[in-house]
Amino acid sequence: MRDKTMTADEVVSRLESGMTLGIGGWGSRRKPMALVRALLRSAITDLTVVSYGGPDVGMLAAAGRIRRLVAAFATLDSIPLEPHYRAARESGAFEVMEVDEAMFMWGLHAAANRLPFLPVRAAIGSDVMRVNPGLRTVTSPYEEGWPFGAGGWAAGPESVEEGASPVPAAAPGARGEAAGSCEDGAGTGPHEEFVAMPALRMDAALVHVNRADRLGNGQYLGPDPYFDDLFCEAADTAYVSCERIVDTAELTKEAAPQTLLVKRHTVTGVVEAPNGAHFTSCAPDRERDEVFQRHYATTPWPRFAEQFLTGDEHAYQSAVQAWHKERS
Amino acid sequence: MSAATRAEYCVIACAEAWRHAGEILASPMGPVPSVGARLARHTFAPDLLLTDGEAMLVGMDGTIEGWLPYRQHLALVTGGRRHVMMGASQIDRFGNQNISCIGAWARPRRQLLGVRGAPVNTLNNPTSYWIPRHSRRVFVERVDMVCGVGYDGAARNPLSARFHRIPRVVSDLGVFDFATPDHSMRLVSLHRGVTVEEIRQATGFELTVPDDVPCTREPTREELRLIREVIDPQGIREREVPDRVAEVPGPAAEGGGR
Questions:
Q1: In chain B, is it the N or the C terminus that has fewer CB atoms within a 10 Å radius of its CB?
Q2: pTM score, two decimals?
């Protein structure tokens, strides 16, 4: 089986300007920051970035690498507003496809399942429809309750419309009313309209996990998988950085097999990047570096980039250590 | 025990949102709603499910009783067994809520969080709002970007909004709902020490005010004890809503995330 290990710079050498790039994690949690930093060292730009946004979005936006962003938010969690993202957005630096968190998730599912879209009960009635004029809606083709209603399996939607259904004419309305007053949300509505969330198919995905083997099996050990497996499935290529590369057998020595989140058939490259999510959290290996995050959030971007991002990953980690030492 | 503070009336008003909610997930956002949801669970709504703010469902003593990562949380929303209390940077008379940006969306004057889960929340499960600082900057005639769907948007889309409901809005001044013929906002109760005039002055649209507006109910001695000694001994609630009589200047609320 193929050894997929590579360096962060090798990952970036496989990416190109103009690509659609998915970035895993959530807010300021388990972000593949070492890969983002490698991207920042390159000349790659004009990206469409798909992310539950955190400092990955903030840095790429501040560095002018984003042409278009697909997101529901950008946040640093303990600092609610991502300041560099915010500044870039207020200067009109890039286009945004602003969608709901759930729409985003179903867009990933659609891409992973090779579907053009999935119906979602969201966005309708909100300005998500106004700011995304390309979004379309779909209407349920089914009568309420089918196939478990009185009509049975044989009566499809067509026969109901033609009046050939064994259901009395008054019944659909009556059933509709019953569903309308139903608080627990069972069943689907009478020809309910949904937003058709388009598949978020990506050229490449970047994710960071706790452990991986050399084949691309990725393991998360923290409380939440976020959507990293979906990102890998929804992208043509996927690159997994990890705190530590281990032998395959070691993955399940102490952790349950359910922690094996990313499967190797979806992975192109594996990068060992200790502290590679810094300064975002990577539980249980690393907590978020809150003090440093605050420094990032309060330092003008050019100064921050000059201070920490001019060298390679090793230089970054050393500069962070030196910065901490200086403060103490 | 000393008299209830303004923050403690707010806690009571938030807790009441989950009365009779049954066995559903309470999703409070912000300190005061979090204290409120836990108070409800401690007392009159013992079946509520609560998270630790991350991916675990936890009991009152922190015992993990379940796992709710984001992917399951977002799916739970569509099942409807959840009542969320979100923040609002802006809210209008029909309950449209904005946490995305101020000014024109294409190039905002002030970028905020983004729509987050507000569009899916409001079409799928009851969504209430908490506004820690009632002002004309928050209670506006029209929001700049509709994130959470209001009653006017729901009425225009009846087939998509069949599960839409905004049970209440709680601010540091009072409690509000939409139980009017046109589903515009109505004053339900005043926190002790607040006048109708004060609320009118701080609200940027015409509010329905019934002839007789009651006060927000008093916390019981046991509720005060739970709030002060068990749920929020650090007094985080008092930092979100300082106990004051007169208005003092301060930053406007911008929160509203998950």
A1: N
A2: 0.91
